[in-house]
Amino acid sequence: MSDQLRVAIVGGTGYTGAELLRLLAVHPQAEVVAVTSRQESGRPVADVFPNLRGHYALSFSEPDMEALAQQSDVVFFATPHGAAMSGVAELLRRDARVIDLSADFRLRDQAVWEQWYGQTHTAPEYLDEAVYGLPELNAASLAQARLVACPGCYPTAVELALMPLLKAGVVASRGIIADAKSGVSGAGRQAKLGMLFCETADSFAPYASAGHRHQPEIDQILSEMAGTPVQCLFQPHLTPQVRGIEASIYAPLVDQQADLQALFEAAYADAPFVDVMPPGSHPQTRSVRGSNMARLAVTQRGDTAVVFSVIDNLARGSSAQAIQCMNIMFGLDQAVGLNAPAMLP
Ligand SMILES: NC(=O)C1=CN([C@@H]2O[C@H](COP(=O)(O)OP(=O)(O)OC[C@H]3O[C@@H](n4cnc5c(N)ncnc54)[C@H](OP(=O)(O)O)[C@@H]3O)[C@@H](O)[C@H]2O)C=CC1
Ligand SMILES: CC(=O)N[C@@H](CCC(=O)OP(=O)(O)O)C(=O)O
């Protein structure tokens, strides 16, 4: 076992932490050596998550950065915004590498981050160094990264859908609309009134119409892809399902002769976790449940490119994509441990 990557997880009792544990339980080249929870410290992992019985002898521990750095090669933060930035300096100083599933290092501009997240950033010196963990965009930088800022779940779905169009320059930089829907696990495992079964079942609604914190992240990354400022109107909705994001994206074409299907197939020819579906397809969230696959379908409607994008918010939208980043950072095959097909039905 000595050649196994030693993995620690801060925040192992949330949904993304539980998904990291589930996926890493069968990763052939990584071993979880520590997992933290302040509320469940001392309790066996398999007591809290019965699906992991027989996979882990570990118990949850307190989040002690010095101990985690000594024990592990890489530390995942599956914590609310604000936690990773208080631990990152200590971990990097002790040569652990860090993969942050929260938003602490996603935005380049400290003032913009503070405006949207409503707190002071305490480690702004790492904002430039952090590599945005979208493997199809940043594989080369990820291979060298000490600190990875994993994308938000909605941004993953939207950015993968728009990357081929923006890189080829076939759509306008204004007037793009991303109409996105998320399952309830996107809100995390903490009880919140609006996320209860009786509040969400048999219903469907938009939210955050005044602006969502994923808006500046989406605009930042789309602008990097295009090499020019891009504005995308992003509108989220809550759907009564556990996992899954669907984004329907509308982008005004500046080149109406472009073969969009060919463009997408070429852009993702070497991407093991992007499936460009045949023309006329309607991807379903159930086709990606529990898997790292993003399924895309592209079509042209008059002067508009229409892209449908589905991911599992807990897998491609966070934990599985974070493991794909880990694989790249440590020189492993990017797909190792992630090849299981989605659960269906
Ligand atoms: N849910 C989703 O679909 C997605 C979530 N994300 C992001 O991933 C992160 C985790 O999300 P999610 O799993 O849903 O969150 P949860 O609220 O479900 O879980 C949070 C976890 O972090 C721990 N924690 C909370 N505060 C601290 C702290 N200050 N220091 C150390 N540990 C702490 C909690 O355990 P304890 O309090 O016991 O220590 C718990 O294990 C968030 O930043 C979220 O925005 C990103 C993409 C998708
Ligand atoms: C359904 C739901 O509530 N979803 C969450 C997004 C989850 C996510 O991606 O989280 P971070 O970007 O914060 O890491 C929301 O809209 O706030």
Fold and architecture overview:
The protein is an alpha/beta fold and 345 residues long. The chain has helices at 15-24, 45-48, 65-71, 84-93, 110-117, 135-144, 153-168, 197-200, 214-226, 260-267, 315-329; strands spanning 5-10, 30-36, 74-77, 97-100, 131-132, 147-149, 176-182, 205-206, 232-238, 245-252, 274-276, 294-301, 304-311. Strands 8-9-7-10-13-12-11 form a seven-stranded mixed beta sheet. Strands 2-1-3-4-6-5 form a six-stranded parallel beta sheet, sandwiched between helices. It binds NADPH dihydro-nicotinamide-adenine-dinucleotide phosphate (NDP) and N-acetyl-L-glutamyl 5-phosphate. The site of NADPH dihydro-nicotinamide-adenine-dinucleotide phosphate has 31 residues, from helix 1 and helix 11. NADPH dihydro-nicotinamide-adenine-dinucleotide phosphate (NDP) binds next to helix 1 and helix 11. Pfam families: Semialdhyde_dh, Semialdhyde_dhC_1. It is an enzyme of class 1 (oxidoreductase). Keywords: Amino-acid biosynthesis, Arginine biosynthesis, Cytoplasm, NADP, Oxidoreductase.
Quick recap:
The chain is α/β, with parallel strands linked by helices and 345 residues long. The protein has helices at residues 15-24, 45-48, 65-71, 84-93, 110-117, 135-144, 153-168, 197-200, 214-226, 260-267, 315-329; strands at residues 5-10, 30-36, 74-77, 97-100, 131-132, 147-149, 176-182, 205-206, 232-238, 245-252, 274-276, 294-301, 304-311. Helix content is 30%, strand content 20%.
